[in-house]
Amino acid sequence: xxxxxxxxxxxxxxxxxxxxxxxxxxxxxxxxxxxxxxxxxxxxxxxxxxxxxxxxxxxxxxxxxxxxxxxxxxxxxxxxxxxxxxxxxxxxxxxxxxxxxxxxxxxxxxxxxxxxxxxxxxxxxxxxxxxxxxxxxxxxxxxxxxxxxxxxxxxxxxxxxxxxxxxxxxxxxxxxxxxxxxxxxxxxxxxxxxxxxxxxxxxxxxxxxxxxxxxxxxxxxxxxxxxxxxxxxxxxxxxxxxxxxxxxx
Length: 249
Hints:
This protein is mostly helical. It has helices at about 5-10, 15-40, 45-70, 75-85, 100-105, 130-145, 155-160, 165-185, 200-220, 235-245.
């Protein structure tokens, strides 16, 4: 696996359905990252404008699905079970399908703990307030305590400026902005030349944002006591390798 894939999907071998799911997501993410590298090195401006947004958004979606699976296997295994059912038909929308609004964003206004939320009030979206309170705040605090002052390069320098209380809001704001901009290139809403809006510099910056944000969430996940730890490698080293790989393209 590539460093970013290993950071996102983990490298601890897991058996059964969850292991198969993470292996599939890892292979998919590896392919997306390799295609991104090839596109940036060899693609012309039109190729970058047409295919860069697709690769960027798919990278975020696959990565966030894998990170969700590491925290909340129930969610992703339920999707898998529905897709393996004999009645599954890809021509129709699957009600259980992973979707950005429900599985990443969640509701903005959720009941706080002092309001005594019930089971129906709880949300499990990856970047919602409840997930932050239960998982991300702790994981990001542990990350900041563990990372040495001279490690992590430029990406870590920016990440260290984020307070644990604002980590999820920071990620959500930046990921939503990148996701929205990438979506404009995928839905092909432009009737003017695409390269006018998605020139090489713009696409390169968007892809860089995707890799950086995915790496930040994957790294933070590795510091959560809930998630299987990486085997035999420092997650900060993978984080640095992922940044070097992108910068060398």
